[in-house]
Amino acid sequence: MKTENSPPDDGQTEAPKRILVIEDQELNRKVVRIVLQSRGYTVVEATDAMEAIASLEDATPHLILMDIALPGQSGEDLTRRIKANLAWVDIPIIALTAAAMSGDRERILKAGCDDYLSKPIDIKVLIERVETHLGRTET
Fold first, then answer.
1. Is 120 within a domain?
2. In angstroms, rounded to a whole number, what is the distance separating the alpha carbons of residues 79 and 75?
3. What's the pLDDT at 104?
4. Total domain count for the chain?
5. How many CB atoms lie within 10 A of CB 17?
6. Is residue 64 part of a domain?
7. Beta partners for 115?
8. 112: domain range?
9. What is the distance between the alpha carbons of residues 40 and 68, in angstroms, rounded to a whole number?
């Protein structure tokens, strides 16, 4: 299920940053979408690796929020696949995961994620991390 939601364009601001949220749980996607849209971001959603790749091929996002426990291909494997593509290698990926055991953070970062947030997500921290990574990618 690929959806794109963005605030109305008043023609006076620069194009909103596009964030791809790859998450199979509808409630998690909804919370993240509401928070990000309230900050002026365009949110594109994917529920699995296939939808995520299709979305990436359609339009390159400025940032990816990646659930690690996806159906089919794991978020770690999908991250490796994204980072192996020269067109996508520089897109920051923030892992969103319930995996909080010893070694999980290191394993997920080693897979290519640029940052890691454990669930349940602290909304304030999510916003701070998103803004930090988007600031890093601006030219």
1. yes
2. 6
3. 87
4. 1
5. 19
6. yes
7. 94
8. 16-137
9. 25
Give the type of residue at 20.
L
Find out whether 43 and 21 touch, Cβ atoms under 8 Å: yes
> What pLDDT, on the 0 to 100 scale, is given for residue 102?
75
SS (H, E, C) the chain: CCEEECCCCCCCCCCCCEEEEECCCHHHHHHHHHHHHHCCCEEEEECCHHHHHHHHHHCCCCEEEEECCCCCCCHHHHHHHHHCCCCCCCCCEEEEECCCCCCHHHHHHHCCCCEEEECCCCHHHHHHHHHHHHHHHCC
Question: Considering only CA atoms, which of 55, 49, 42 is closest in space to residue 23?
Answer: 49
CATH number, domain containing residue 84: 3.40.50.2300
Q: What is the mean pLDDT of each run of 10 residues along the chain (139 residues)?
A: 49 79 96 96 97 97 96 96 97 89 87 94 95 74
Taking the whole predicted model, whether its pTM rises above 0.90 is answered as no
